[in-house]
Amino acid sequence: MSDLALTAGEFLESARRGTLTGIRCARCGTLAVPPKEFCGTCHQRAWERVPLSGEGRVTSFTVIRVAPRGHTAEVPYAIAHVTLTEGVALLGRLIDVALDRITIGMPVHLTSSASGRAAIVFRPA
Fold first, then answer.
1. What is the value of pTM for the model shown?
2. Which of 1, 5, 69, 92 satisfies CB 3.0 to 4.6 Å to 47 for a cystine?
3. Nearest to 63, CA basis, from 33, 87, 89, 97
4. Per-block average pLDDT, block size 10, for the chain (125 residues)?
């Protein structure tokens, strides 16, 4: 049994269904994306689950043209660094947007993963 407020598996399975859950330190209020053992601010283990909106903006992105083995049929595709409205950031695949139309600052929202392969998937808002 894990002491974690939210395991990586639980986090990713929830994201596949289109829902994000973060963790907030009950001691200092730091918000994070799981899994984390200890709070990076106060070094305590006092996490509580909190729902995240899934709304954010692209802060960086890259287009994958040479994919790792097992993903070659999916190229080209984009991976974006997204900062959520709550302030935490994570990486996810961008879908439903032409690769040449992706911009820094573009509003996006989390969506469920149709393929089941990529756990965290964003589309334009």
1. 0.89
2. 5
3. 97
4. 71 90 95 90 94 97 92 91 97 96 98 78 96
